[in-house]
Design a protein that fits this description.
Layout: H1 12-27, E1 40-45, H2 51-62, E2 66-69, H3 84-91, E3 97-102, H4 107-112, E4 119-124, H5 130-143, E5 150-154, H6 161-170, E6 176-180, H7 189-198, E7 204-207, E8 219-222, H8 233-242, E9 258-260, H9 281-286, H10 288-300
Parallel strand pairs: 1-2, 1-3, 3-4, 5-6, 5-8, 6-7, 8-9
The structure holds phosphoric acid mono(formamide)ester (CP).
Phosphoric acid mono(formamide)ester is lined by residues 49-52, 132, 262-264.
């Protein structure tokens, strides 16, 4: 079925179809302004979100559709103990597609087994965040190109779902992937194993320091070190300090380096970097709209308006 649960399910051709459609929509958004008039997208966010939720809502409205929003866990019947399976079965009766964010890894896979409308995983615990990956790939393609790419992915690689999703998707493009993190926050071994299996020539390297690899990078993808996972604050401060990017850090980088971050950031990229040519993270967040419009358009298909192709 047309559920979008993990980036592992996306082939190179699937990815290119979405990115090409997103580029068309970005160039001429009015062409799709009424395309899905009357269609409703159900938003089920069991965890906080700013970008993902609001860009899905923007995307659906820019396609002529609208959203129905469960609201917070606190204000919903989840508080009364309703199961996720029951919740999605009910909301699929209200909406043409569902977007689910949930703290439990595997929640989207489970929920998708109970519904017939397309279900999009907007983040499941430390698992996957495939629509983030599509907007990340779009941003990489625009700034550095996806061919012969050398990318550094830095920060909390253990729990970062955007990283797990992106790494699998990049293996479709034979990217050179350098993972930079403290030992305690390395990529799960299972992900490293899968990447080696998937790529003809494994081009995956792990580092504890950015310094040795920075000059060779086309893209540096920074993620938040998750403070809440450190029992000892001083240990967090020690580690976090080593994985912060300032203008001085970037002196050793190529002039063409693109710096990305899924956001929200805390203090891993200094605000001064925002003013440099390297910074692409706000553009990246904005790309969430055309990319999610493209994805929704492809999933909702010809159920839209009269000007369907
Ligand atoms: N990048 C991202 O998923 O941001 P939100 O948590 O704000 O949706």
């Amino acid at each position: 079925h047309d559920h979008v649960i993990t980036s592992k399910q996306l082939s190179r051709s699937d990815i290119e179809t979405v990115l090409d459609r997103a580029a068309e929509i970005r160039d001429d958004p009015t062409a799709v302004a009424d395309r899905h008039a009357g269609a409703l997208l159900g938003l089920l966010f069991f965890e906080p979100s700013t970008r993902t939720k609001m860009s899905f809502e923007t995307a659906m409205k820019r396609l002529g559709g609208d959203v129905v929003d469960m609201g917070s866990v606190e204000s919903s019947s989840v508080k009364k103990g309703e199961t996720l399976a029951d919740t999605v079965r009910v909301i699929e009766g209200y909406a043409d597609a569902l977007v689910l964010r949930h703290p439990k890894q595997g929640a989207a896979t489970m929920a998708s087994e109970f519904v017939d409308v397309p279900l999009l995983n907007a983040g499941d615990g430390a698992g996957q965040h495939p629509t983030q990956t599509l907007l990340d790939l779009y941003t990489i393609r625009e700034n550095a190109g996806l061919e012969d790419l050398t990318i550094g992915i830095m920060g909390d690689l253990k729990y970062g779902r955007t990283v797990h999703s992106l790494a699998y998707a990049l293996s479709n493009f034979d990217a050179h992937q350098h993972f930079i993190s403290p030992e305690s926050l390395r990529l799960p071994r299972e992900v490293v194993y899968d990447l080696h299996q998937e790529q003809e020539r494994a081009q995956v390297r792990e580092h504890e320091s950015l310094e040795e690899i920075l000059p060779s990078l086309d893209v540096l993808y920074v993620t938040r070190i998750q403070r809440e996972r450190f029992p000892d604050e001083t240990e967090y401060q020690k580690i976090a300090g080593e994985y912060q990017i300032g203008v001085d850090t970037l002196e050793a980088a190529s002039d063409d380096l693109t710096v990305m971050h899924p956001l929200p950031r805390v203090d891993e990229i200094a605000p001064e970097v925002d003013e440099t040519e390297h910074a692409a993270y706000f553009e990246q967040a904005h790309n969430g709209v055309p990319v999610r419009m493209a994805l929704l358009d492809l999933l909702l298909g010809d159920e839209g308006g009269e000007d369907d192709e």
